[in-house]
Amino acid sequence: LASPAIDAGRVIADLRELQRRTGDADGAQRLCWGAQWRVAREYLQELLDEIGLEATRDAAGNLWAFLEGEREPALAVGSHIDSVPNGGWLDGAYGVMAGLGLLRAWARSGRRSPRTLALVDFADEEGARFGRSLFGSSAVAGTLDVQEVQALTDAGGRSIVQVLAENGVELARVGEAAAGLEHIGAYLELHIEQGPVLAREGLQAAAVTGCAGVERLRFGFIGQAAHAGTTPMNVRHDAGLAAATAALEVERIPTAHGGVATTGELELQPGIATAVAGEAWLSVDLRHPDPAALELMLSGARRSCAEAATSRECRLEEIAIWRIEPIAFDPQLVELAAGAIANTTGTEKRITSGALHDAAELARVLPATMIFSPSIAGISHARAENTEDADLAVAIAAFGALASAVMMTE
Amino acid sequence: LASPAIDAGRVIADLRELQRRTGDADGAQRLCWGAQWRVAREYLQELLDEIGLEATRDAAGNLWAFLEGEREPALAVGSHIDSVPNGGWLDGAYGVMAGLGLLRAWARSGRRSPRTLALVDFADEEGARFGRSLFGSSAVAGTLDVQEVQALTDAGGRSIVQVLAENGVELARVGEAAAGLEHIGAYLELHIEQGPVLAREGLQAAAVTGCAGVERLRFGFIGQAAHAGTTPMNVRHDAGLAAATAALEVERIPTAHGGVATTGELELQPGIATAVAGEAWLSVDLRHPDPAALELMLSGARRSCAEAATSRECRLEEIAIWRIEPIAFDPQLVELAAGAIANTTGTEKRITSGALHDAAELARVLPATMIFSPSIAGISHARAENTEDADLAVAIAAFGALASAVMMTE
């Protein structure tokens, strides 16, 4: 007996209604722990009410809804309903509404799904308010260190402890969310690519093989500030030009090793037209799906910065910002995803995600994978974020087929 | 009969007392139009009282004091007593106190100087509060455009019109200061170099041949902001790297043309570690004493920026910030200055100033020149600004000899 199909038109309509209720002319405004995020969750509960399901919240503020099937543990599907400020209508919400569409299809089919299905909406994937991404999913995966986040404040100076408490979450106890894992056997997530690859290749969907690891640092070049008019060229120690040289060398690292390398932040001191820069602070963000290659990228970046500093007799400082190791998705689930996409779209495409997702945290503790839909012009985290309805519908169908295949496995 | 010598010890003592009265632990605080600047001027009046001279103020707030000599028009000597915030004890004040020392020497000699001597303290040379440098001297030279400055406000939002009025200066009438020129035949200024050249060459003084012209612009590189993780290297239009390339090319311009080229300001947008920069704004400050060479530098900078933009498919914008043509000092006065320095120090050195000075404005309308003293480590506009007392004394002696030579000329 075939699995009931997800009603893609309804999923897209739910997404549009969500945007109508919580967005504005500048885009999506479902900033986690805020009023519009709570409105989004109320809407989610309305949609669950429609199919007779009640949502529960775990200790980290993640929302769960279970549709009982023939076997345990459950197959979890979902993503995050929170957005960045002025964000797009699809980022996160797409996977939540598609997952809800899967539960709705089974609930209305009059049959029990082969496995219990769990819809999950992870809290604060974006980290837009306190700077800690993947909050809820890392709590579930057991990688959220309360000590590391308890001192965080938002731009208005309000404490994460207080803001979470207002949302019914006690920071000290978020680790208890990991207990929910015992009911879950695997995790699937549908998401937009947020990059240009699928759109440029004219593809409607791709299986995601994992999330690239990230090494993010800030290098400080300490030279000597000097008067732009009175300081001869040959006695300068221009920290800005040392950083410029380093940035151009860092850009070349992926040529040898693959991956991506970005220097998006560069601050000069004193940073005025009439002075040679005495200090320059350059961010370096390196990403690669392979741990060994990522390590080579990091040593290459350090070498480039050291050489650029030395050549201008600048001192070099290095500050770690953040790092995460590459996380590969479950090979069997990736194969099933690639097969479902091939069956639905006629093309097989695998892609590594350069952005982090809740699925990366879940993949630490469960078999997990994702399906990506194309992002028009690669734009995301902006009002202009969009995907053709037809492409969304195809990927939703592939996601449904993948869920069926996973439920049938074992 | 020999001219009376300037008492260099007294000049240095006056400078120390000025710093004691108006400076603090962070350096000189004689910000023009402020309380400490008025204290500095009161001290100047005390010193003039000592030799029986009364100061007058012209329509631009410049302070003048005349010591009648045997002939008119007067030889003017001076500089500016205002400083940048947290400035040095010598910048500007040095030339004012040395000029006063010259008038004191003649006043106490019991003889009349061969020419009338005029001490001038120009108002707001630094432009530190409203961003318009050479305020008082440009009013005298007739190059201060009231229309261009009347909308200026300080960092606290206060209008230049109001702040000047509080200091007895009516902005609309500052042009009347030019009338004072009819009494002046030439202008001499003693100043610190504010750069490292003399100190590195072990020289005690130099004759200044003129002030370099300046072309100051801001170039905007408009690329495409993109996600650092999801955007492959080969589809990026990284505006930050376009600006980095341009900055490194601009640095090479003086190799071919001489002069100095500085890119001290670089702003990236969005300017975060996780995004490819979509915009970059780079300042370019070019200086050269020769107009034709400066023009070549400017076209070279434009070409470098255009090529860097094109190579990354960025759009280029150009905004003019400020420009001033090179100003050569009077060749005869420069020769006299070089000769006075050679007689005093045993070495002859000519230097072009890369910084602007009041003498540059005066040189537009009068024969003028300057003498520079070395700046230890080239440091200026900072508390650490300093020159050895012995070097100050030698340059003061050379300045006195120059003034005598000029008074004897004609």
Broad shape of chain A? elongated
Count of helices of chain A? 12
> Which regions of chain A have little confidence, pLDDT < 50, spanning 5+ residues?
none
Largest interface: A-B, 58 and 58 residues
Summary, kept brief:
Two copies of one chain form a homodimer. By secondary structure, chain A is an alpha+beta fold.
Could you walk me through the main structural features you see in this protein, from its secondary elements to its overall organization?
Two copies of one chain form a homodimer. In chain A, strands 1, 2, 3, 4, 5, 6, 14, 15 and 16 form a nine-stranded mixed beta sheet that branches. Chain A has twelve helices and 16 strands. With 410 residues, chain A is of the alpha+beta class. The interface between A and B is large, with 58 and 58 residues.
